[in-house]
Design a protein that fits this description.
The complex is a heterodimer. Chain A contains five helices and twelve strands. In chain A, strands 3, 4, 8, 9, 10 and 11 form a six-stranded mixed sheet that branches. The longest helix of chain A has 17 residues. Chain A starts with 9 loop residues before the first helix and ends with a strand. The N terminus of chain A is likely disordered. Chain B has two domains: about 180 residues, Cupredoxins -  blue copper proteins (Immunoglobulin-like), CATH 2.60.40.420; about 150 residues, Cupredoxins -  blue copper proteins (Immunoglobulin-like), CATH 2.60.40. In chain B, about 10% of the residues lie in helices and about 35% in strands. In chain B, the strands form five sheets. Chain B has a six-stranded mixed sheet with strand order 13-12-15-19-17-18. In chain B, β2 and β3 form a beta hairpin. About 5% of the residues of chain B have low confidence. The chains are: A alpha+beta, B mainly beta. Chains A and B meet through α5 of A and β20, α5 and β21 of B.
Chain lengths: ~270, ~375
């Protein structure tokens, strides 16, 4: 049951900041996942949601933030084999899966992902949870990308902003085949996190926010959270209803939908 | 391994294969060689090269020339086609696209089609034009084996949009149609389209939306099955077909074909003609955020168009036409308004319209904002 690491390649292993592999005692055959440490330090972050100056939709301001603590995040997506154990033990709802150890578990909702986190926490007596959107951005490292309105948000015509956003997302989505690929196929980023920002959008803990930005666009004045909708992170940030497992059809008629919904967890120390 | 295709190309199995010779086909085949001749030698002739949908070959809207013999060529292509991220179809196609290309002529023209069935194909094929009169729409004059060609000529006597499809006999008919073999022809009135008051109208661009319903079998793991060749796909596909519930409903042959980078485009103020065909099953086109200004729901231009429609009905086995002037820029969704089919099964196209937003037509008066629950919203309920 001990996982082969050969598929990840030597270079990727070397890039990992730290890894920790524990064997879960038989008969569960649960191998604790490899973790990657995301270091404390400074980073830029743009809050998640819809933001306006007055009534005009704008990008949220980028905030320069400092994290005082490291945190640990799963190096890989939660695997089908891992999720299957949770289902077998009654901790998770069944979903589409082949139980493979080589493929990530997708077709999971926010509710499924958090159920898995609760189950894993109970099994391991550790605290596991989804990353916040902000933690995900830190973990995405050099793979992080986001679709922003940019200068076009100054265009007074809403249709031009809309069309630009549509075209940008369409281009970026077509760059990658949505077909599910084995764990490791997209390689590691500069932090040693594997497959982040490939063709799986990852659930985060963060709720949708509706916020007001100062007139000069420089800072957030106030915001309200709506937690029936969570941020799923990938090529662009998608806001998805928490019980949806497959968002390929899109949440509305004309958006660009995420390819696959999967997840990885953070372990609290 | 020897595939059925290899074996058939070798020739040994042709007579024995149930997939090639159909019982029903033989009795339907006829020819016209003993009928009284017609002399069209003085008719002008011209050729059109067909283009793949959603685009339409260049054509006049109001004919400036007398009736002619209008020549077209089509190759029948059997090939595996990806119809969704995780789904492949052993497709049979007119000219390699699903739907087949839109042909455009004028009333009184003669349509002369040369139909090629290339030798690498496995199946017999033919073509049934709903616009044509007699001989099963031409189907019984055009049955071609792999390696054969045929030429059919028919007079376009009725103006309108009409389906054409393959109909090679018996159970092959629905199977060929749901494997992709349908398209449409538009027979324009010689003096062009007219509105409800019989005044001329024209379009700045035309798009052809061909809707297909597909019936792809799944294996024991729940994955869509892939097949070695079209013949191998028949029996499993038939079982799904006979359940009458499609697994995919697409525009232009693939889920998402007319969205993203494939989205249709238009400009504010342009009149766009949407021709919509469905050879097998009912559909109900709807332009989200727009309308049909003038809609020939049944597609036949001798009937006055309906006005200001929200949704129009396309009967299975017909093609309709809708004319719309885009008044507001932005993204529009053109869907089959059975929304399960639109969103979950694939029947969605997008139209990207450039222009200047008009707040008179629509304005967001209050952007979404939290309200005071204690004091607001009390007056809404009776």
């Amino acid at each position: 049951m001990k996982r082969s690491v050969s598929i990840f390649g030597v270079g990727i292993l070397a890039a990992a900041t730290t890894t920790a592999v524990y064997l879960w005692p038989a008969p569960d055959a649960l191998v604790l996942p490899e973790m990657t440490v995301i270091s404390a330090g400074e980073y830029d972050y743009r809050p998640a949601g819809d933001f306006r100056v007055g009534t005009r939709v704008v990008d949220a301001p980028i905030e320069h933030r400092t994290a005082r603590l490291d945190f640990e995040i799963m190096k890989h997506h939660v695997r089908q084999s891992e999720y299957s154990i949770c289902v077998a033990q009654g901790g998770c709802e069944a979903t589409l899966t082949k139980g493979s150890n080589d493929y990530p578990q997708v077709d999971v909702s926010y509710i499924d992902a958090t159920a898995y986190a609760r189950w894993l926490s109970k099994k391991t007596k550790q605290t596991w949870r989804l990353p916040t959107d902000e933690e995900w951005v830190r973990a995405a490292g050099d793979r992080f990308s986001e679709v922003i309105l940019g200068d076009i948000s100054n265009d007074p015509d809403p249709s031009k902003r809309w069309l630009l956003k549509y075209r940008t997302q369409a281009l970026e989505r077509n760059a990658i085949d949505p077909e599910l690929r084995p764990i490791g196929s997209f390689g590691a980023n500069d932090k040693g996190v594997v497959d982040i920002n490939g063709n799986i959008w990852e659930w985060t803990e963060s709720c949708f926010q509706n916020g007001k930005v100062s007139k000069d666009g420089a800072f957030l004045v106030e915001s309200t959270s709506y937690c029936g909708v969570r941020a799923a992170q990938g090529k662009h940030r998608a806001f998805i209803i928490d019980f949806v497992r497959d968002a390929k059809g899109g949440g509305c008629a004309v958006g660009t939908p995420p390819d696959n919904l999967g997840f990885r967890l953070v372990r609290e120390s | 391994m020897v595939t059925r295709r290899d074996a058939l190309l070798g020739g040994a199995l042709i007579a024995a294969s149930p997939y090639v010779i159909t019982k029903a086909a033989a009795s339907e085949v006829m020819n016209t060689s003993d009928a009284a001749p017609v002399d069209l030698s003085s008719m002008p002739r011209r050729k059109h090269k067909l283009v793949a949908p959603p685009f339409v070959h260049e054509h006049e809207q109001v004919s400036t020339v007398p009736p002619a013999v209008v020549q077209f060529e089509m190759n029948i292509i059997e090939k595996e086609v990806q119809i969704d991220d995780d789904t492949y179809l052993q497709a049979m196609t007119f000219n390699g696209s699903m739907p087949g290309p839109l042909m455009v002529v004028h009333e009184g023209d003669y349509v002369e089609l040369t139909l090629y069935n290339p030798p690498e194909n496995l199946m017999q094929h033919n073509i049934d034009f709903h616009a044509a009169t007699g001989a099963l729409g031409g189907g019984s004059l055009t049955l071609v084996n792999p390696g054969e060609k045929t030429v059919l000529r028919f007079k376009a006597t009725r103006p309108g949009t009409f389906v054409y499809h393959c109909a090679p006999g018996g159970p092959m008919i629905p199977w060929h149609v749901v494997s992709g073999m349908s398209g449409a022809i538009m027979v324009l009135p010689r003096d062009g389209l007219k509105d409800h008051e019989n005044k001329p109208v024209s379009y700045d661009r035309a798009y052809y939306i061909g809707e297909n319903d597909f019936y792809i079998p799944k294996d024991e793991n729940g994955d869509y099955m892939r097949f070695e060749d079209v013949g191998e796909s028949y029996s499993d596909t038939l079982e799904v077909m006979n359940g009458l519930i499609p697994t995919h409903v697409t525009f232009n042959g693939k889920v998402g074909a007319l969205t993203g980078e494939g989205a249709l485009t238009a400009k504010q103020g342009e009149n766009v003609l949407f021709v919509h065909s469905q050879a097998n099953r009912d559909s109900r086109p709807h332009l989200i955020g727009g309308h049909g200004d003038l809609v020939w729901e049944t597609g036949k231009f001798n009937n006055p168009p309906e006005r200001d429609l929200e949704t129009w009905f396309i009967r299975g086995g017909s093609a309709g036409a809708a004319l719309y002037e885009f008044l507001q820029p932005g993204v529009y969704a053109y869907v089959n308004h059975n929304l399960i089919e639109a969103v979950n099964l694939g029947a969605t196209a997008h139209v990207l319209v450039e222009g200047n937003w008009n707040n008179d037509l629509m304005e967001q008066v209050v952007a979404p904002v939290e309200y005071d629950v204690a004091h607001e919203g009390k007056t809404a309920l009776p």
